[in-house]
Design a protein that fits this description.
By secondary structure, the chain is an alpha+beta fold. It is built from 18 helices and 18 strands. One of its GO terms (cellular component) is cytoplasm.
């Protein structure tokens, strides 16, 4: 398996060689048409990007040459001097030197500065006449016999990878069916072949998934400018710290959370961080701290947005919820801190006193939460008044193949994503008790509300009332789900197994029922509905006494 350093070097090589080829082409155009603005702009842009990428990778020798050449082309673009005379062979020589340095990086060779070239470039920058060197004689025998090289990397449109992953998903489904059939027949030769097919399918699946992975830094690195602009608009001083840029995640997931992350960062600056004057009064430094980080947690990626601002005022949120008619005053008073934080995710909920370009327009954290839910992820908030707030996005590394718990209900198989599965327990009816019309189970130190999933799925608003423990006989298989910090026990007929599944969209007419997040096909050929835990939890809360 390649190291991250090797992957970054290969990516740098691919982009750098592409830039080198493009610059060589544009230089040839400029030699014929010195005033070609399109070619001038492209060479300037390519040199600027090469300089930045080389310095980021620690290849300072490349960065020094690219920087000087960028300066010269900046002078040419601004009409300070023409692309003509003795500077032309020096610039061609600079392109050749850059190409040699890039190839040296690919060969793991040590880079050294080309001092004669750098001195010549400095002379050109200062308007002095350069000294004619040998890497400067155009049309030499070495130039005429130069070999052409192609990059070892290719660029693939994401749509092609999406299509390939869909095909792999179909293959996985058929593989499971073949494995089941081989076990039923009992033919050892067929079982050996299908076992090999299974390994190949797994390798292909993970190879395609790996090809779709990108570092979260591709998104994170766009935020320094965002933070600067928002902080300026809000008249606040903010220092941004970024970490975990090399954490890998599916590119489509990164695309889906882009707007959510942007909103959370703006929210942290607009709502969370105080003005310099307010911070000084609170005994804090004038400059607010904002941290954007990523880390892995088993099969998930955790992305956190933390600020050291004013924190969430729990009592203020309670009052807002009551004022907006979301809760009665008595119900709001009974909420614990986590439940109050969850109110921030209600549609249209905002504590902003003023509507600004940054916050308070009623398009808030509910939109962010819906985006995370669509991925099968979770959004958590932790806050301390006067100390700051942290939003945590719990995301799967891939949205194509998910781990799931299979279970049976009324003779039919169902699947529940492991992302929302806290634990599974089997309890005797006497271990359950009714409080206020709600069935509760004590699991470890927690009292968790429990409901028969069959009752919850029934098209009857009164199906849950009242809770009846006497109707339960024998040990009850219970799946403890966890959504947004709220746990719910689902009583099912029996557990089946845990396995990776390929989730397909639900077709008509089931697509009208939001309790199902998709469908998968089992090895037996059975169609298996995938439960949507957020929707199940919301349904339970709407029906509970």
């Amino acid at each position: 398996m390649k190291s991250r350093e090797q992957e970054y070097r290969e990516l740098f090589m691919a982009e750098a060689l592409e830039a080198y080829d493009a610059m060589s082409q544009h230089m040839s155009v400029l030699e014929k048409r010195p005033g070609d603005e399109g070619a001038l702009n492209e060479v300037f842009r390519l040199l600027h990007n090469l300089k930045a990428n080389a310095r980021a990778m620690g290849h300072d020798a490349i960065g020094e040459v690219a920087h000087r050449m960028e300066t010269i082309f900046g002078q040419i673009r601004s009409k300070e001097r023409p692309f003509a005379g003795s500077m032309v062979p020096v610039l061609f020589s600079g392109i050749d030197v850059l190409g040699g340095m890039i190839r040296a990086v690919g060969a793991n060779q040590e880079l050294t500065e080309n001092l004669p070239l750098i001195e010549n470039l400095d002379r050109v920058i200062e308007g002095e006449e350069p000294v004619l060197l040998d890497d400067d004689e155009s049309g030499s025998e070495e130039d005429a016999t130069r070999k052409l090289e192609l990059s070892d990397l290719v660029y693939i449109p994401i749509k092609k990878l999406d299509h390939l992953l869909n095909l792999v998903g179909e293959l996985i489904i058929d593989r499971d069916r073949v494995l089941t059939l081989a076990q039923e027949i009992g033919d050892t030769t067929l079982q050996t072949v299908t076992a090999h097919l299974s390994r190949l399918a797994d390798d292909l699946q993970y190879s395609v998934m790996d090809a779709r992975l990108v570092g979260v830094g591709t998104l994170f690195n766009k935020f320094p400018r965002v933070v600067r602009d928002v902080a300026t608009a809000e008249q606040k001083q903010v220092e941004l710290t970024i970490s975990g840029q090399d954490i890998q995640i599916d590119r489509n997931i990164l695309q889906i959370i882009t707007d959510s992350l942007l909103h959370l960062v703006r929210n942290a600056i607009g709502h969370g961080l105080e003005t310099p004057e307010e911070r000084v009064k609170a005994g804090k430094p004038e400059i607010g701290q904002l941290v954007l980080s990523a880390q892995t947690d088993r099969d998930n990626v955790l992305i956190r947005i933390s600020d050291d601002g004013r924190g969430v005022d729990v009592e203020r949120v309670r009052r807002k919820a009551v004022d907006r008619g979301l809760l009665t005053r008595e119900a709001a008073a009974r909420l614990n801190e986590t439940e109050v934080h969850n109110l921030l995710f209600e549609a249209g909920f905002s504590t902003a006193e003023q509507v600004t370009e940054i916050s308070g327009r009623g398009v808030g954290l509910d939109v962010v939460k819906l985006a995370i839910d669509s991925l099968g992820g979770q959004l958590r908030v932790d806050s301390k008044l006067g100390q700051g707030t942290t939003f945590t996005l719990v995301l799967p590394t891939s949205i194509a193949v998910k781990g799931a718990l299979l279970f049976e209900l009324d003779g039919h198989p169902y699947a529940l994503p492991l992302m929302h599965t806290d634990s599974v327990v089997s309890l005797a009816p006497e271990k359950l008790h009714v409080v206020g019309g709600t069935l509760l189970a004590k699991v470890l130190t927690e009292n968790i509300p429990v409901v028969r999933l069959a009752d919850l799925l029934a098209d009857n608003d009164d199906a849950l009332l009242p809770a009846n423990r006497a109707a339960l006989t024998g040990a009850q298989d219970i799946i403890i789900t966890n959504y947004n910090g709220r746990k719910l026990g689902l009583i099912v007929d029996r557990f089946l197994r845990q396995q990776d599944i390929v989730i397909k969209p639900v077709s008509q007419p089931l697509d009208m029922i939001d309790l199902f997040g998709g469908v998968t096909l089992l090895g037996s050929g059975q169609v298996c509905l995938v439960l949507d835990v957020p929707a199940i939890t919301r349904l339970f809360l709407s029906r509970r006494p």
